[in-house]
Amino acid sequence: MMKNWRGILSLLLAALLLAAVVPPAADGLIPVALAVSQKDIDKLKENKKDLTGEKKDIQNQLSQLKNDKDTAIQRRTLLDQEISITEREIKNTEDQISGYEALLSQTALELEKNEREEAEQYELFCQRARAMEKSGATSYWSVLFKADSFSDLLSRLSDIQAVMNYDQSVLDQLRQLRKEIQEKQAYQEELKSEAEEAKTELEGKKAELDEKRKAADQMVKELQADQEAAELLLREKEKEEARIQQEIKKKEQELAEQMAKAQMNWTATVGGYIWPETRSKRITSPMGGRNTGIKGASTNHKGVDIGGVGTNTNVLATKAGIVTISKRSSSYGEYVVIQHGPGNTTLYAHMSSRAVKEGDVVSQGQVIGVTGSTGISSGPHLHYEITEGGSRVNPLNYLPGYIQAW
Q: Could you report the per-residue pLDDT of 41-59, keeping only the tens digit for each?
């Protein structure tokens, strides 16, 4: 009997050692490092609060301005800023949804692993109980009472203690696994609920963005329909664009000095442009004189307007170069200027957002922003200018296959 008991103990202890050294088969399913963590989600939520604060500040400024022609440009600029914040809110919410989906996927894998470990540990415990039952050792005491000497008793006591410790560790591990499973299941339900809330919020934000864009464009249309307001708008627009041209020349001179100091030379050549976006070839307004709709007034359009681009088309650098200006303007809205060589620049205006900053080196075809209707604009389009030899040239000379829509 003693020999049989010792054999059972040996088998049980061997099983314990094997369980300790053999890793779970599914460990490879769990990524070593999480791409997204709860901390990332929490940070996005904090950023969202900051955006809400920014938006309230813009709305307060708008509420303090009179709804008249004297504040038209200022109001339009604030509306553009509010639209930009709404776009950032949408991006924030989309990032949260992506984070929730990643965490849900990760939690599902962890749950699967925990449940498998629980089943394996429970099966080990059952195997040990069955082995005890087959041996006839229904209790630890019964094994001790069968000792035929004191030395045998000590030997049995030592073996039983190891088994008792093992039993307790298995039970503790099972309890811990069950606790982890329940916590992960609750966390999983929480993530699902928050993800659904974020999706509902996203739809609301998209509808809000659409309404704000329409309201901003409508404001410009109404101003253009009022002769006095339109004249003021035109004067302010031309004054701002002249200031921008001065800044472009100043930035060009600064860049030339920096390159000379670094003993660098331009390698760009005249021409060689590609279309500044890939969605439309409709030219809604060409370069040159055009009727403003104001009696006796006309303006010299300094570039071309490309229509049919919507508010989500990527704007591309039409030629490799260095970004000399990337900012917001009351007339051009969100705009970017790229220098390609001495006296050679391109300008991209009325974008909804910019993807480059001053000093960036860009390659031909690189995304520099997204189309929109910011600044003095009554609808989504891309205003595009080219200068060569320091003077503006007609972009249509470099845009093959354009469609005349004016």
A: 999 999 999 999 999 999 9
